[in-house]
Design goal:
The chain has 218 residues and is mainly α. It is built from nine helices and three strands; from the N terminus they run αβααββαααααα. The longest helix is centred in the middle third of the chain and has 22 residues.
Length: 218
C-alpha cells in the first residue's frame, strides 16, 4: 500500500465512522504529521475524497468534511431508487452460482463482523454482485457513483442497528437464489425506502414525500 493509499484509507475511515464529523477542517500539514508521512500523499488523498463528495476543498491547503445535507440524501436516494431496483432485477438471470455463493459469504461477513468498515465494504460488494450483472453499463456507472456518495449515509444508517439490514439482505439473497427477478426488484426498492426513512428521521425534517415511491408517508 502506498502512502497515498494509506492516507486515503485512514481519512475515509474516520469520515465514514464519524470520528471526523461534518465540518471538521483537514489541514494537510497536520494530517501528514499525524500519519508520519509527507504532505504530497495527504494532498492526493484529500483530492480523492473531494471527488467522492466527502470533503470540500478550501484555500490554503485546507479541506472541510462536507456537511451532511438533507437535500443530498434525498437526491441520492431518488437516483438509487429509480435505477438500483431495476438493475438488480435485471441481473438475476445473468448471475452464476459463484455470484450467489459470493453473496452468501458477504452476508455472513456482515452478520458476524464487529468492524463497521468491514460491514460497509461487504454491503457494497453484496449489492454490486447484483447490479453489476445487469448488463446495463450506463446504469452500472451511475450506481457506482451514487453508491460511493451514499456510503457515508449508509454508515449513519448502520449505526442505528444492523439486524434489520441483515434481515433485508437475507431476503434479497433468497429471492436471487430463486431466480425471482420481480421479488429482487421489489425487495431492493423496499430496502432503499427503509434506509431513507430512518435517515430522514435521524437527519431531521425531510419532506413527507418519499423520493422512492412518490407516496405520502403516514
Amino acid at each position: 500500500m502506498t502512502s497515498a493509499d494509506e492516507a486515503l484509507s485512514q481519512l475515509r475511515s474516520r469520515i465514514l465512522t464519524g470520528s471526523l464529523p461534518a465540518g471538521s477542517k483537514l489541514h494537510q500539514e497536520e494530517i501528514a504529521t499525524q500519519l508520519g508521512m509527507s504532505r504530497i500523499p495527504v494532498r492526493d488523498a484529500i483530492r480523492t475524497l473531494a471527488s467522492e463528495g466527502l470533503v470540500r476543498l478550501e484555500p490554503r491547503r485546507t479541506a472541510i468534511v462536507t456537511p451532511v445535507s438533507l437535500d443530498d440524501v434525498a437526491e441520492l436516494y431518488e437516483l438509487r431508487g429509480a435505477v438500483e431496483p431495476l438493475a438488480s432485477g435485471l441481473a438475476v438471470p445473468n448471475m452464476t452460482a459463484g455470484d450467489l455463493l459470493r453473496m452468501r459469504g458477504l452476508l455472513r461477513t456482515m452478520i458476524e463482523s464487529e468492524d463497521p468498515l468491514e460491514w460497509l465494504e461487504a454491503n457494497d460488494e453484496f449489492h454490486a454482485c447484483l447490479f453489476e450483472n445487469s448488463g446495463r453499463p450506463r446504469m452500472i456507472a451511475l450506481l457506482r457513483q451514487a453508491r460511493e456518495q451514499t456510503r457515508r449515509y449508509t454508515g449513519i444508517r448502520m449505526a442505528e442497528g444492523r439486524a434489520d439490514l441483515d434481515a433485508e439482505h437475507r431476503l434479497i439473497l433468497v429471492a436471487a437464489e430463486r431466480r425471482d427477478m420481480q421479488a429482487v426488484e421489489a425487495l431492493v426498492r423496499a430496502h432503499l425506502i427503509s434506509a431513507f426513512t430512518v435517515l430522514r428521521r435521524d437527519l431531521v425534517d425531510l419532506p413527507e414525500i418519499s423520493p422512492l415511491t412518490g407516496a405520502r408517508n403516514v
